[in-house]
Design a protein that fits this description.
39% of the residues lie in helices and 21% in strands. By secondary structure, it is of the alpha/beta class.
Amino acid sequence: MSNKIKVLVVDDSAVVRQVLKSLLETQTDIEVIGTAVDPIFAMTRMQRAWPDVILLDIEMPRMDGLSFLKKIMAERPTPVIMCSTHTEKGAEVTIEAMRLGAVSFITKPKLNSKAVMEETAADIAQLVRAAAKAKLGNIVRRETASGRAESKSQAPVAHGGTADIIAIGASTGGTQAIEYLLTQLPASLPGIVIVQHMPEHFTHLFANRLDSKSRLQVKEAEHGDKVLPGMVLIAPGGKHMELKRAAKHFQIEIHDKPPVNRHKPSVDVMFASLCRQATAQQKIHAYLLTGMGDDGARGLLELFKLGAFTVAQDEATSVVYGMPKAAVTLGAASKILPLPAILGQIRNTAVRAGSMAS
């Protein structure tokens, strides 16, 4: 019996189906057990052999990808990776798919040079491997726990902790985890900066969605933004985000340097910039959440050595225990916490900040 990861590709484009099939078949541990032009054909094929991972298009005839995703998650939860277009509409639907339980997404591969195609194959294969091990129950619980509208303050809440900062890094499973946190946090917090692995066009929609659901003010970070209490700044997709000290505040710097750990934005880039700017008067709280790979682990270790309060999400509540596991292995975490306890820990930051102001 084969131990290969069984993948089903569902896309109405014959070219995309063939490209994805060809890319994945270069990997010795992955087997494409079939392709389907739409979900109706896919369901027939899945009756014969159920896949470990589904690569799913969004716009298809007879049944769209979101409807099929809902059906799968209701009847037989299976790891799903959405195949998104590079358009804003594609990004918007993909964000909704993540809320509904998709593990992650890829942007549709472009036919390009052999080197680019080989790199694309490696990236997709890595995501398929992570999806095959993903804990779908954690995604479902995060979606159920969040999603309620919150009243928003008219302006960021000023308090004595303006020099403090909360930094969060995440990848696979992170969109759901971040939504879970931000929809339940008060506005009276130090400034929050977030790196969530996402491509261009996706992060501003993600930020807008969170802004509409949170008491905090959430936006995609721009060069020169100040990190103010009650605000959340999310690194823009396809760019790195660093922090520089400016008077009593941190200030955002956005740049387009090469990827780090194969990612742009990179969590390690953000954490490293905090290490360079840290002072005894500024308390840094750094959290490394669910995600594949090891981005952020070394940066978290350096922050830990400087005396920052560092937290890695535990294995039990992570969708993919990669990045936090790497941090734990390095000894970079002051604490290893489940996601609900991380929520409580960040809430305590607000309590401390409030007591400073009083």
